[in-house]
Amino acid sequence: MTRRQADLALLLATALWGTSFVAVKSALADATP
Questions:
Q1: Is the pLDDT of residue 16 over 80?
Q2: Residue 1, CA atoms < 13 Å, CB-side half-sphere
Q3: How far apart are CA 1 and CA 29, in angstroms?
């Protein structure tokens, strides 16, 4: 794996984590206790 591939993989993982975090946060906000 080249340095560029590693950077792209890290960027993709960060994007996936960020979007899933926002989705979970909004789902928890909408859920009734």
A1: yes
A2: 7
A3: 40
Which amino acid appears at position 17 of this protein? W
Mean pLDDT of the chain, nearest integer: 93
Q: How far apart are CA 16 and CA 5, in angstroms?
A: 16
The helices-and-strands tally (H runs, E runs) of the chain is: 1, 0
Continuous segment of H or E residues that includes residue 2: none
Q: Does pLDDT of 18 surpass 80?
A: yes
Looking at residue 23, what is its pLDDT? 92
DSSP, res 32: -
